[in-house]
Design a protein that fits this description.
The complex is a heterodimer.
Chain A: H1 9-26, E1 30-35, E2 38-44, E3 53-57, E4 60-66, H2 68-88, H3 96-113, E5 120-126, E6 135-139, E7 145-148, E8 151-154, H4 158-166, H5 176-191, E9 200-206, E10 214-216
Antiparallel strand pairs in A: 1-2, 1-8, 2-9, 3-4, 4-5, 5-6, 6-7, 9-10
Helix pairs in contact in A: 4-5
Chain B: H1 10-17, H2 23-33, H3 38-45, E1 54-59, E2 64-68, E3 72-74, E4 77-80, E5 86-90, E6 93-99, H4 101-122, H5 128-141, H6 143-147, E7 152-160, E8 165-171, E9 177-180, E10 183-187, H7 190-200, H8 207-224, E11 240-245, E12 248-251, H9 254-267
Antiparallel strand pairs in B: 1-2, 1-10, 2-11, 3-4, 5-6, 6-7, 7-8, 8-9, 11-12
Helix pairs in contact in B: 7-8, 8-9
Chain lengths: ~230, ~270
């Protein structure tokens, strides 16, 4: 009887994790930061049509780093989950926490059961009714889930970016412009080069908006147009 | 299949994942499992289901106005005095519904989710034409329920950014979709409303004038048709209306509707 090659589970998981981490680090970073009116997203993304940050539900947004096809798949699944839940129960029953749990389950299963893990890191944010009640969830490639406060970073050189963001005292939530400048400075610091406003994708979850809180902020205000 | 053509549609998703939540399927399942024939349902139960209505839409110089009365009836009883028949379906479209109240409201809710779902998945909203076609599909899918007497007849209005104008669509129970250029009214009081609008309608009228014509039509319909509710001054219940133009959808304030109703009543000498 021939024996298949034996690979220890530890080795297997470690290899998979390394593979996924490498894929994610190759990509560009996304920052989510709580600001005065909600949550600000700044993504290092020169494309103006292939978005990294998008709307999931009334007060919930999604952001994915790593392999586009994989996080796009997760984004659509998230919208389906949210819309189905909102239809079955009510709009207020759709929460970022349940969505983040869903992503954690899915990514965890894929990581342990599939040959190739997803090379993605997911960020789910929900703007609360008060400044203190925003929620930021970060879900890693293996389904590990983190509940972040004030700011969260996924993709690219996320560790270095976190260090750069922490340099500043975050005792209170900044206004929109200050928060955006702070994010851009952190990106510039890490990449060691000038990053223009045109080279980043910016979106907000703004609690002062009526109904759906998600809004993209184009780099030139005049380019705001109705579809 | 290389592309998944269903991923932008919430309805297709619902059909695949939770078919038991689809409106028509649920009704068909109920009638079969209870052992009721379609005939029994028609005879025994339909009289007790809530029916509308007068709903109407008119073009004005900037876009379209859509309005409806508030009464729902069950046979000879008033089922609801405050029913909302005009719904905002997305940032630049609205619909009003006539027919059996339950399925009507469900269709409005599902249609709003369908539009929002498409917009979120694809990143851009559907075109005005696309929205109107999508609603036609939903009305057509409702045909099995129509055969059992549960009619849903919507009116759809939207602002078309490509043509830079407001557009309106009416539907028949088989899902036929017809575009109207000036105005239309549907429901048990629809004919009375259309006659009034025909007398007063002018193309490119102002917002203010068009609101007045719409109210006049609803008041006349309420006068002639028992299924249509007029303004109820004691309870402060007035018809609801929405304006759809390039800026989006906005409600006509209740106070403004009330004031115009008073004015019309006064001009007819009802207060004397």
């Amino acid at each position: 009887m021939s024996m298949p090659y034996y690979i220890s589970p530890e080795q297997l998981m470690q290899d998979k994790a390394e593979y996924a981490k490498k894929g994610i680090a190759k990509g560009r970073s996304i920052i989510a930061m709580e600001y005065e009116h909600g949550v600000l997203f700044v993504a290092d993304n020169p494309s103006t049509s292939l978005f990294k940050v998008s709307e999931i539900y009334d007060a919930i947004a999604f952001s994915g780093a790593g392999k586009y096809s994989e996080f796009e798949h997760l984004r659509k699944a998230g919208i389906q989950h949210a819309d189905l839940k909102g239809f079955m129960y009510s709009r207020q029953d759709v929460t970022a926490r349940s969505l983040a749990n869903g992503y954690s389950q899915t990514l965890g299963t894929i990581f342990s059961q599939e040959l190739k893990p997803f090379e993605v890191e997911i960020l789910v944010a929900q703007v609360g009714e008060q400044a203190g009640s925003n929620e930021l969830y970060r879900i890693a490639f293996d389904g590990t889930i983190f509940h972040d406060r004030l700011f969260s970073v996924i993709g690219g050189r996320s560790e270095a970016l976190l260090m750069a963001l922490r340099k500043r005292e975050h005792s209170e939530r900044l206004n929109h412009d200050a928060a955006l400048t702070h994010c851009l400075e952190a990106l510039e610091h890490v990449h060691d080069q000038k990053i223009s406003r045109e080279a980043v994708e910016v979106a907000v979850l703004d609690r002062t908006r009526n109904g759906r809180k998600f809004m993209r902020i184009p780099s030139t205000p005049s380019s705001v147009s109705h579809s | 299949m290389l592309f998944n053509h269903h991923c932008s549609s919430f309805l297709e998703f619902l059909q695949q994942e939770k078919p038991e939540l689809m409106p028509a399927a649920r009704w068909a399942a109920a009638s079969v499992s209870e052992g009721f024939s379609a005939e029994t349902i028609r005879r025994e139960y339909l009289a007790t289901l809530a029916h509308g209505t007068t709903i109407l839409a008119l073009r004005y110089h900037q876009g379209v106005i859509i309005a409806g009365d508030r009464r729902a009836t069950e046979g000879f009883q008033v089922a609801d005095r405050r029913m909302e028949k005009v719904y905002t379906t997305d940032s630049h479209s609205a619909m009003a519904i006539a027919g059996t109240a339950g399925p009507c409201m469900e269709m409005a809710k599902l249609f709003s989710i369908e539009l929002e779902h498409y917009e979120k998945v694809d990143g851009i909203p559907l075109s005005c034409e696309g929205k109107a076609n999508r609603l036609a599909h939903m009305v057509k899918a409702n045909l099995p329920m129509v055969l059992q007497g549960l009619v849903v007849v919507p009116l759809f209005v939207g602002y078309d950014h490509k043509d830079a104008q407001g557009r309106m669509f009416k539907y028949d129970i088989a899902g036929g979709r017809y575009e109207e250029t000036d105005y239309h009214a549907v429901g048990s009081g629809g004919k009375d409303a259309r006659i009034t609008i025909k007398e007063h309608f002018r193309r490119n009228a102002t917002e203010q004038d068009t609101i007045r014509i719409a109210l006049l039509a609803l008041l006349n319909a309420a006068d002639e048709d028992v299924g249509t509710g007029g303004p109820d001054r004691t309870r402060r219940i007035y018809p609801t209306m929405k304006l759809v133009d390039s800026e989006g959808v906005r409600d006509v304030e209740e106070s403004q509707v009330a004031a115009i109703c008073e004015e019309i009543a006064a001009s007819r000498g009802e207060d004397q």
